[in-house]
């Protein structure tokens, strides 16, 4: 017994194996409890809960940007047509009456067919004449020469043609002096003085003819009125061309290689609309006064809209994100809910998560459409400011996870089919559209480009502009 008192280890053996077994069980239970407690503590440290507030509402654009188009109406004639008409209109006797010399009279007769040539953006007019001078019972033999004029034309703001005729000289030299009875005259000087009343008469005749051949106001009035009503392009697809004319302008007279051309442009907004017939605007805007076309753009632009609803995006992205597990740094997060809506110029993504992070999170991103690839995508995917603040306080590790990259990668959509349909509709819009009886809008599509993206509450509106040349043709 003395040895046992001196050795505590020996004391254990006194009680036998039963006592020893009970002690082992107690130690193991204690260890298990400790492990469970440690695990619970660790699990409590990993699981975070946050419920972020919805981002503050930001002002949104309400309408897509617009660009004006130029619809050009060109009226043409040949210089030969003008020549034939002037030869019918201009009388043979161009002048008969007094001169600057007292007692001296003059007669100027047209001596053959006038010549008209369109070149250098002028109408060149040559009038062969025979001029007689008389003094009492005396009269000279005819002085034959050709009067030369240069005609330009512009259009006044009230749509009236305004031709301007300049005398450019005689074609043949005349004798310096000649005597008629008691007086001596200078034939060249006298003939050039007579060109002034002739010039006035020719101006009136040319203006009359140009007004008949180029009825700008009446034709523009038809186009202007027709442009203010929806124009049906395709009955099957219910496609309408909407023009909203704003102003009218004119181009200077074109006169080259025997052709005369006057152009008038109508600046208008143009867009294609698919669906029921759009409402006709109340009232008709009257044809405005003309403006000169200094450096005006002659391209015709048609706005094509395509709407991308968030519900369609969700149909694509939900199978790729819902109930999918995202892991990192020993943690796992599962997406249990996802919503999309527009706020300002950005998309908002609302996520509901479980796992190591439970709660509601918000991300924002910028919608992008690439017209070269016809791909819709999102960029600059970031957590909302309040979500970021909460994550920094409770689950900073999630800020650096892969979920942002996954969302940016999967929120993509190929819009090639829609863009191709838009191009086909634009081509039909410009191919041949009857605006009014005898008036057709014709043109072609040369390119398409992205013009604007409008973020709305429930959809994205993507605006593509189809560009080409167009004109109004008279038939």
Describe the overall structure.
- This protein is 30% helix and 45% strand.
- By secondary structure, the chain is of the alpha+beta class.
- The chain contains eleven helices and 27 strands.
- Helix 4 packs across helix 5.
- The N terminus is likely disordered.
- The strands form four sheets. Strands 2, 12, 13, 14, 15, 16, 17, 24, 25, 26 and 27 form an eleven-stranded mixed beta sheet that branches.
- 27% of the residues are buried.
- It has a domain of 138 residues: Bactericidal permeability-increasing protein, domain 1 (Super Roll).
Low-confidence stretches: 1-45
**What general form does the structure show?**
rod-shaped
CATH topology title of the domain at 77-214: Bactericidal permeability-increasing protein, domain 1
CATH class descriptor of the domain at 77-214: Alpha Beta
What's the overall average pLDDT, rounded? Answer: 81
State Rg. Answer: 45 Å
End-to-end distance: 135 Å
In percent, how helical is the residue content?
25-40%
Assign the structural class, choosing from mainly alpha, mainly beta, alpha/beta, alpha+beta, or little secondary structure: alpha+beta
How does CATH name the architecture of the domain at 77-214?
Super Roll
- Count of alpha and pi helical runs: 11
Please report which band the strand proportion falls in: under 5%, 5-15%, 15-25%, 25-35%, 35-45% or over 45%: 35-45%
Largest sheet: 11 strands, mixed
Count of beta strands: 27
């Amino acid at each position: 017994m003395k040895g046992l008192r001196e050795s505590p280890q020996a004391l254990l053996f006194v009680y036998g194996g039963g006592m020893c077994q009970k002690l082992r069980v107690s130690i193991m239970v204690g260890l298990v409890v400790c492990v469970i407690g440690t695990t619970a503590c660790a699990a409590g440290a990993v699981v975070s809960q946050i419920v972020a507030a919805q981002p503050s509402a930001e002002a949104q654009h309400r309408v897509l940007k617009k660009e004006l188009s130029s619809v050009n109406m060109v009226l043409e004639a040949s210089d030969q047509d003008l020549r034939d008409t002037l030869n019918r209109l201009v009388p043979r006797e161009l002048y008969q009456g007094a001169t600057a010399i007292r007692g001296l009279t003059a007669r100027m007769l047209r001596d053959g067919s006038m010549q008209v040539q369109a070149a250098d953006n002028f109408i060149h007019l040559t009038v062969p004449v025979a001029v007689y001078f008389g003094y009492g019972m005396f009269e000279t033999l005819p002085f034959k020469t050709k009067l030369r004029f240069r005609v330009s034309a512009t259009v006044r703001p009230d749509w009236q043609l305004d031709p301007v005729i300049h005398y450019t000289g005689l074609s043949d030299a005349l004798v310096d002096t000649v005597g008629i009875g008691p007086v001596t005259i200078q034939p060249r000087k006298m003939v050039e003085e007579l060109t002034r009343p002739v010039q006035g008469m020719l101006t009136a005749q040319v203006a009359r003819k140009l007004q008949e051949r180029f009825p700008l106001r009446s034709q523009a009035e038809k186009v202007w009125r027709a442009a203010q009503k929806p124009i049906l392009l395709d009955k099957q697809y219910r496609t309408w061309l909407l023009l909203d004319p704003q102003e009218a302008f004119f181009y200077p007279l074109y006169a080259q290689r025997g052709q005369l051309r006057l152009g008038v442009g109508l600046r208008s907004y143009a867009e294609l609309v698919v669906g029921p017939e759009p409402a006709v605007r109340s009232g008709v805007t009257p044809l405005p006064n003309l403006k000169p076309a200094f450096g005006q753009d002659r391209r015709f632009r048609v706005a094509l809209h395509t709407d991308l609803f968030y519900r369609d995006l969700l149909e694509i992205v939900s199978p790729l994100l819902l109930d999918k597990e995202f892991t990192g740094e020993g943690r796992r997060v599962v997406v249990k809910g996802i919503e999309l809506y527009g706020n300002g110029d950005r998309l908002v993504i609302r996520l509901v998560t479980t796992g190591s992070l439970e709660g509601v999170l918000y991300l924002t991103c910028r919608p992008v459409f690439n017209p070269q690839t016809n791909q819709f995508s999102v960029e600059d995917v970031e957590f909302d400011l309040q979500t970021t603040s909460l994550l920094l306080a409770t689950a900073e590790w999630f800020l650096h996870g892969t979920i942002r990259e996954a969302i940016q990668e999967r929120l993509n959509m190929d819009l090639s089919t829609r863009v191709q349909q838009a191009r086909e509709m634009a081509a039909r819009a410009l191919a041949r559209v009857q605006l009014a009886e005898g008036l057709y809008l014709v043109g072609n599509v040369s390119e398409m480009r992205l013009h604007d993206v409008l973020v709305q509450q429930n959809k994205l509106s993507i605006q593509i502009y189809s560009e080409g040349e167009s004109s109004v043709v008279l038939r």
